[in-house]
Amino acid sequence: MSIPILKHGRTLIVSLQSEPTDAEFVELQHELAQRVTTTHANGVLIDVTALEVLDSFATRTLREIGQTVTLCGARAAIVGVQPEVAFAMAQLGLSLDGMLTALDLEEGLALLHAQPGVGVVT
Amino acid sequence: MSISSCIAIRADVDIITARQRGRDLGVELGFPKTDLALIATAISELARNILTYAGEGEIEIALEDVGGRRGLVIVARDQGPGIADLALALQDGYSTSRSLGIGLPGVRRLMDEFDVVSEPGSGTVVKATKWQ
User: Fold this and answer.
1) How confident is the model at residue B119 (pLDDT cuts 50, 70, 90)?
2) Half-sphere exposure (Cβ direction) of A84: Cα atoms closer than 13 Å
3) Average pLDDT of the residues in B96-113
4) 8 Å CB contact between B18 and B47
5) ipTM, 2 decimals?
6) Shortest CB distance from A53 goes to which of B33, B44, B106?
7) Strand order in the sheet with A43-47
């Protein structure tokens, strides 16, 4: 696995450091679904602070990751979309509709844990 | 044109290389951060179009200087099937691949100038410019 997935309580955390290729994004999608199932995680946090571009493919894959992990019983949040990246996405008509978004990792964790049943250690 | 760079687009990693080169040239020209993101995103979408529709091609990134006014030019070139109905391809929300694209209208919105030359069977050339 080229993109590391960390576990904190029942939350999985992915910090995208270098720009992932399309193949790595798709691999991450599959890996996260697996890990949610095997670790009984109920939250997934993806940090995109370091990314300078979120194009149509990246956006679509992030949305699909959100749908996939939701189907597996968890909630996903995207954190750290940079203002200029958000501006370019809006110009293109791209959105992360249906996903939780937050400013940074800390607020993302708080947001996930504010969701009913998420982050509860049982 | 003093500075230019040409990147062959054959695989998904080339998309990343192309947009990083575009960004680097944009930084060199002193573009603000917002424009750098627009330029990098436009390159990403154009390179993706090449892979999706033509399989391979190239992205050229160059500095343009017209009477002291400087801009960054992206030229996306392929020898693919070409675009049968250009007017339709430039319509918002239109895509023949049904999968990825925000398509050409999206790229047009990101840049200041935009031009497409394409004939069925003879490939496609897209030229997009961001002025300073």
Assistant:
1) confident
2) 15
3) 75
4) yes
5) 0.88
6) B44
7) A5-8, A11-15, A43-47, A75-79, A100-102
